[in-house]
């Protein structure tokens, strides 16, 4: 039987995990809440192996997909954005993960494939476009770990169109934030302390928005957060 409305395929680069009790060994994983949010939106979430782009063309690998979701994860290596030193708080750096994610960001933007970038994903896009990061926001009294706080959204952005809101409650888990903004990017949302919470590329032919928070954390109960995944899958379904 022919399916008339197949679920759009959404590529989600997997994250390396040193240990996983269920599998007994190191693994490649994606957050269940993230995968479920894509599924609720009508997409088919597919974990993608972070292989070295030098041996497997990323653009060719992404060609079979209808959209991409760059998820959260550990920190990018500071040298990726020109930093000479590494702050003591930088954690879970993986060179292969960095190289793969940065190439995914570049190729996805090049092709206009719909892209939603979350937390580390936003930082990856920013760095891929020549931006930099503040390696640490200044300790537990300033960082955004285990925090839900209001975020102000710029009107007229894809982020506002998706969430249908000018303010939203964002579930955050990050100790780094955008410093220098990448070429062509504009800020679409900020926290009260000025932290960049959203980025977009005005004039970009494909659907793209990035958020510094984790919408998957509360998407099951907050329609504004689920709407981000809905918008990604809708753009993927409509052919970018």
Automatic annotation (TrEMBL):
Keywords: Hydrolase. InterPro entries: Class_I_gatase-like, Peptidase_C26, PuuD-like. One of its GO terms (molecular function) is gamma-glutamyl-gamma-aminobutyrate hydrolase activity. One of its GO terms (biological process) is polyamine catabolic process. The keyword Hydrolase applies. Coiled coil: none annotated. GO terms for cellular component: cytosol. SUPFAM superfamilies: Class I glutamine amidotransferase-like (SSF52317). This is Gamma-glutamyl-gamma-aminobutyrate hydrolase. It comes from Streptomyces humidus.
């Amino acid at each position: 039987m022919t399916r008339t409305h197949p679920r759009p395929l959404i590529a989600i680069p997997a994250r390396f995990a040193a240990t996983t009790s269920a599998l007994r060994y190191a693994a490649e994983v994606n957050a269940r809440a993230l995968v479920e949010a894509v599924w609720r939106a009508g997409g088919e979430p597919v974990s993608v192996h972070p292989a070295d782009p030098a041996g497997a063309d990323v653009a060719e690998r992404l060609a079979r997909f209808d959209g991409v979701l760059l998820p959260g994860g550990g920190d990018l290596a500071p040298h990726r954005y020109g930093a000479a030193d590494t702050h003591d708080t930088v954690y879970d750096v993986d060179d292969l993960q960095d190289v793969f994610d940065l190439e995914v960001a570049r190729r996805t933007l090049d092709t206009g494939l719909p892209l939603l970038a979350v937390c580390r994903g936003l930082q990856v896009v920013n760095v891929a476009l020549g931006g930099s990061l503040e390696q640490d926001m200044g300790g537990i009294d300033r960082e955004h770990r285990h925090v839900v706080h209001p975020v102000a959204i710029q009107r007229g952005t894809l982020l506002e169109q998706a969430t249908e809101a000018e303010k939203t409650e964002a579930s955050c888990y990050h100790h780094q934030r955008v410093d220098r903004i990448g070429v062509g990017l504009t800020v679409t949302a900020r926290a009260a302390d000025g932290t960049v919470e959203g980025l977009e590329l005005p004039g970009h032919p494909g659907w793209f928005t990035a958020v510094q928070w984790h919408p998957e954390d509360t998407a099951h109960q907050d329609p504004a957060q689920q709407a981000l995944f809905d918008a990604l899958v809708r753009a993927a379904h409509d052919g970018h």
